Amino acid sequence: MVSVNEAFQIIQSVSCPVGTEALSIADSVGHILAEPVVADRDFPPFNRVAMDGIAISSKSFQAGQREYEIEAIQPAGQPGIKLHDSQKCVEVMTGAMLPEGTDVVIRYEDIELKGNTALVKISEVKKGMNIHPQAQDAKTGEALLKPGQRISPAEVALLAAVGKASVQVYLFPKAAIVSSGNELVELNVVPQRHQLRRSNVYALFAAMQEVGWGAEFFHLHDSESEIETVLADLLKQFNVLILSGGVSKGKFDFIPQALAAVGVERKFHQVSQRPGKPFWFGTGSDGKVVFALPGNPVSTYVCYYRYILPWMMEQMGVVLKPEQAILTEDVTFTPQLTYFLQVSTFFKEGKRMARPVPGGGSGDFVNLKEVDGFIELPAEKSLFKSGEAYPYIGFRHL
Amino acid sequence: MVSVNEAFQIIQSVSCPVGTEALSIADSVGHILAEPVVADRDFPPFNRVAMDGIAISSKSFQAGQREYEIEAIQPAGQPGIKLHDSQKCVEVMTGAMLPEGTDVVIRYEDIELKGNTALVKISEVKKGMNIHPQAQDAKTGEALLKPGQRISPAEVALLAAVGKASVQVYLFPKAAIVSSGNELVELNVVPQRHQLRRSNVYALFAAMQEVGWGAEFFHLHDSESEIETVLADLLKQFNVLILSGGVSKGKFDFIPQALAAVGVERKFHQVSQRPGKPFWFGTGSDGKVVFALPGNPVSTYVCYYRYILPWMMEQMGVVLKPEQAILTEDVTFTPQLTYFLQVSTFFKEGKRMARPVPGGGSGDFVNLKEVDGFIELPAEKSLFKSGEAYPYIGFRHL
Question: In order of start, what are the domains of chain A with their CATH numbers?
Answer without folding.
Answer: 21-43+136-170 (3.90.105.10), 48-132 (2.170.190.11), 175-315 (3.40.980.10), 324-394 (2.40.340.10)
